[in-house]
């Protein structure tokens, strides 16, 4: 069936009225083109939004204290309280499935300004009192030196890890900060490391202006005692922090004599729940892209089916002669189906090629954007599975488009076909 004469016949049939064939093929081209572009755009938007999370562990919740709204055990409503460092082992012991619990204290930012001094240079930066696990929950790139460790925690060492923005403002260009001292609210801390950080939610510049010091030395230097400002809690990979959140909050309520029904006393942000919503949104967007692209493609397939019906009508005499000379119904059906599949695949693959070229140009433009130009759109692309799906759609569509015309062709009796004008 796939000999040279068959291919010549296909080309002659489709080029007999090339303008009509071109317009018909455009429907399939446009359907595949829109499908690929929509999927790539959805992927680009997904990449951009997820890029905003940086490398932060998404199976994480953040927890802080708020005003108590219900009286309980003789304690009035409206009171303020603080987490204590003792809450950490309590939570870990009573809530299984947790990977990291990082208590944190903070100076600067929304808790007020702080002064950091080195020589004649001063600056206002966020200063965090942390445990070593925080770098696994909110990763940073250590560019020199090291991060804080448990030796620093146990010995209450006054050491600090500074961001590139802090280094730029407090140190001269080319000056080595490791081993030098900075003064945080009048207390000297030795710099043991520097870092750079990926931007999260567009705060790329501010993210470089942070200072990390050991939690214990922070508490001692700034008279925080056993207080904890807030906590970052990450669940194990086989657990969901969303499912564990209520148990964690219940432990805190028990430790601080808070009414079990007081839902306002403990503030929390469930990053995993938000991340899951975003994932669900992009799954829905992908479904919409497939739905819209398939509808447009279907209109093109209908157009191809119509053109093949016209072609069959125009070739009635030819079909009658072939049938009279002994051509089997399968031979006639196969020829019509081949013509339909050929037209569909050629137009569809052209759509894939053009859309891929446009995606390539968009990526080149994004790559050439100035550094630090945060965007919610990054690396639009389609994976190889989409190409295979498109090929399956094209072949199936070609068969469907040619099926009705093929059936019409073989149902025509040879004698009737020879009599037609």
TrEMBL record:
It is a multi-pass membrane protein. Residues 21-249 form the MacB-like periplasmic core domain. InterPro entries: ABC3_permease_C, MacB_PCD, Macrolide_Exporter_MacB. The chain crosses the membrane at residues 21-41, 288-312, 341-362, 382-404. This is ABC transporter permease. PANTHER family: ABC TRANSPORTER PERMEASE YTRF, MEMBRANE COMPONENT OF TRANSPORTER-RELATED. The keyword Transmembrane applies. Pfam families: FtsX (PF02687), MacB_PCD (PF12704). Keywords: Cell membrane, Membrane, Transmembrane, Transmembrane helix. Belongs to the ABC-4 integral membrane protein family. It comes from Aquimarina celericrescens. The keyword Transmembrane helix applies. It is found in: Cell membrane. Residues 291-414 form the ABC3 transporter permease C-terminal domain. Signal peptide: none annotated.
């Amino acid at each position: 069936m796939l000999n040279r004469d068959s291919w010549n016949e296909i080309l002659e049939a489709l080029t007999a009225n090339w303008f009509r064939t071109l317009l018909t093929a455009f429907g399939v081209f446009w359907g595949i083109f829109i499908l690929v572009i929509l999927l790539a755009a959805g992927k680009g938007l997904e990449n951009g939004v997820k890029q905003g999370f940086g490398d932060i562990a998404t199976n994480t919740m953040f927890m802080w204290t708020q005003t108590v709204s219900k009286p309980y055990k003789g304690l009035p409503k409206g009171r303020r309280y603080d987490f204590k460092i003792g809450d950490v082992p309590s939570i870990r012991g009573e809530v299984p499935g947790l990977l990291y619990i990082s208590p944190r204290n903070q100076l600067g930012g929304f808790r007020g300004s702080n002064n950091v001094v080195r020589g004649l240079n001063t600056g206002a930066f966020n200063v965090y009192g942390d445990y070593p696990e925080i770098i696994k929950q909110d990763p940073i790139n250590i560019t020199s030196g090291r991060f804080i460790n448990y030796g620093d925690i146990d010995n209450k060492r006054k050491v600090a890890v500074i961001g590139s923005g802090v280094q730029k403002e407090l140190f001269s260009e080319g000056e080595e900060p490791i081993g030098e001292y900075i003064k945080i609210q009048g207390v000297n801390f030795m710099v043991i490391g520097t870092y750079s950080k990926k931007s999260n939610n567009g705060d790329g510049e501010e993210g470089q202006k942070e200072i990390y010091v050991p939690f214990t030395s922070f508490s001692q230097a700034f008279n925080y005692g056993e207080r904890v400002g807030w906590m970052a809690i990450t669940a194990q990979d086989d657990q969901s922090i969303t499912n564990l959140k209520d148990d964690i909050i219940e432990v805190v309520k028990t430790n601080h004599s808070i009414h079990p029904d007081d839902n306002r006393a403990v503030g929390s942000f469930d990053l995993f729940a938000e991340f899951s919503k975003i994932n669900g949104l992009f799954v829905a967007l992908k479904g919409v892209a497939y739905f819209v692209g398939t509808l447009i493609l279907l209109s093109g397939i209908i157009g191809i089916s119509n053109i093949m019906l016209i072609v069959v009508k125009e070739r009635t005499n030819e079909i009658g002669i072939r049938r009279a000379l002994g051509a089997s119904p399968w031979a006639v059906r196969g020829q019509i189906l081949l013509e339909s599949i050929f037209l569909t695949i050629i137009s569809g693959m052209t759509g894939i090629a053009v859309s891929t070229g446009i995606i390539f140009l968009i990526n080149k433009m994004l790559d050439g954007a100035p550094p630090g130009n945060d965007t919610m759109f990054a690396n639009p692309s389609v994976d190889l599975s989409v190409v295979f799906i498109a090929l399956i759609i094209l072949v199936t569509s070609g068969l469907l488009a040619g099926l009705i015309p093929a059936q019409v062709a073989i149902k025509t009796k040879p004698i009737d076909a020879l009599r037609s004008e």
